[in-house]
Amino acid sequence: MHALIVVAHHDPKSLTHSVVAQVAAGLTASGHTYEIADIAAEGFDPRYTAADHLVHRTRATPPVDVLAEQARIDRADALVLAFPIYWWSLPGLLKGWIDRVFVNGWAIDYGPDTPVVKKLRHLQVHLLALGAADDDAFDRHGYAKAMRTQIDYGIFDYCGAQVVTSALLLESESGGVQAHLDKARAVGEAVFDTETVAG
């Protein structure tokens, strides 16, 4: 089976990129294929423009860069997103990628007089979010729940995609690095397991 790994970090030497390398190694070890979409290095434009709004309102043909990203996802059986947590959420680059790519007519179908049809029910999603704070900060302030509400449910469940893994890899600047790399490798090895553990 085939996975698309999307990484949203500008520094190829970052822990986020190292996590992606471990996910890829795990996929390879399990006999699966993958493609890495390094949307920073590739220069993906996250700005939602008038052309994108026209797609949303009238189902116009999406811009070429959006069609290319949708084709990558269409080729995949699973989607893995690896990203740093900025201000308790997705970085702007990844949020813009989702805003522009997961559009009406492709990820969902809806109109003013019709209910939402979830079009990505075939897609499994694995989320690896890296943050510097500790579990206590995320739990005490409700950030972990907020992230799962807005990302796992607000984005992916709304499109019908199943979030199989939703892992917060925290304390990334204070010694948790090896544990995060081990977790990423395990996620890669288990992406297509039917008994993958979420979390």
TrEMBL record:
<dbReference type="InterPro" id="IPR051545">
    <property type="entry name" value="NAD(P)H_dehydrogenase_qn"/>
</dbReference>
<dbReference type="Pfam" id="PF02525">
    <property type="entry name" value="Flavodoxin_2"/>
</dbReference>
<keyword id="KW-0560">Oxidoreductase</keyword>
<protein>
    <submittedName>
        <fullName>NAD(P)H-dependent oxidoreductase</fullName>
        <ecNumber>1.-.-.-</ecNumber>
    </submittedName>
</protein>
<dbReference type="GO" id="GO:0016655">
    <property type="term" value="F:oxidoreductase activity, acting on NAD(P)H, quinone or similar compound as acceptor"/>
</dbReference>
<dbReference type="InterPro" id="IPR003680">
    <property type="entry name" value="Flavodoxin_fold"/>
</dbReference>
<dbReference type="InterPro" id="IPR029039">
    <property type="entry name" value="Flavoprotein-like_sf"/>
</dbReference>
<comment type="similarity">
    <text>Belongs to the NAD(P)H dehydrogenase (quinone) family.</text>
</comment>
<feature type="domain" description="Flavodoxin-like fold">
    <location>
        <begin position="1"/>
        <end position="184"/>
    </location>
</feature>
